[in-house]
Amino acid sequence: MTFNDIKNNDTVRRYIVGADESLAALGYTEHSFAHVTSVAEKTGYILKTLGYDDRTAELGKIAGYLHDIGNLINREDHSQSGAIMAFRLLDSFNFSASETIMIVTAIGNHDEGNGVPVSPLAAALIIADKSDVRRSRVRNQTLTAFDIHDRVNYSVTKSELTFNDSKTNIILKLQIDTEIGSIMEYFEIFMERMLLCRKAAEKLGLKFNLIINSQQLI
Question: Rounded to two decimals, what is the model's pTM?
Answer without folding.
Answer: 0.96
